[in-house]
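Last lecture ended with a question: if I hand you only a sequence, what can you say about the shape of the protein? Today we answer it with a concrete record. The protein is Transglutaminase family protein. Below, first the input exactly as provided, then the predicted structure, then a couple of comments.
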Amino acid sequence: MQLSVKHTTHYQYDVPVDYGLQQVRLTPMERDGQKALSWDLTIEGGKKELAFTDQYNNHVELISIDPGGSEIAISCDGEIEVSEASGVVGPHNGYMPLWNFKRETDLTQGGAGISALIEQLGSDHSDDIEKAHRLSALIVERVPYLVGRTDADSTAEGALDAGGGVCQDHAHIFLTAMRKLGFPARYVSGYLMMNDRIDQDATHAWAEAHFGGIGWVGFDVSNGYSPDERYIRVATGLDYRDASPISGMRYGNAKENMVVQLQVQQ
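The predicted structure:
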């Protein structure tokens, strides 16, 4: 399937910004089953300082805000060819060793809520991938998709306590539980072509777990199935902070307003 993406993130500040830097992870990496036919990233109100591949094999561009500027827009426009693989991404590669994906982070620390979720999962002898799918279903049952219950800094345990969350929270809970069960697991950010709309409010997030003899397999907990040819993988990491589309810093006390325009279609 050939997917078209048009994505603009527009930041406005209430006072001029003297200095600001943003790390931008918005360029899909080519891999088996995913090929960029075209991809352009443009900046208004700033400039590209450098580009590099990080420890998770993500393409990262460092963007500076024009000194004294009060707005910056980061836009992507491209076409990606994606093939169906039933969620299987394949063997591990990149600079980060596989064992590191079993490590907890501030957002994925397990506590009583995760332990209870694992206990509810049970200890039957179903195969590992089937168990991961059952875990995914339990998470949505316990934490239904609800906007406004959590924020970008919410932890896996916090989302469980809130009783609702979004795709970021579902991925964090899944990662935390899978790591507790002994599996390497990672966060994925990217794009999803929805069947009922073209215009979207934000990028999407899901999770991947690594299984012996198969490699990485994706799980979109929020939607209840493994990613197919409607998904574009862009960045991965231990949690949201490693794979967020845009993250950065700036000097001063300027208040920020962000507007996202996103279209994904065949």
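Comments.
1. The chain has five helices and 14 strands.
2. The first strand starts at residue 2 and ends at 17.
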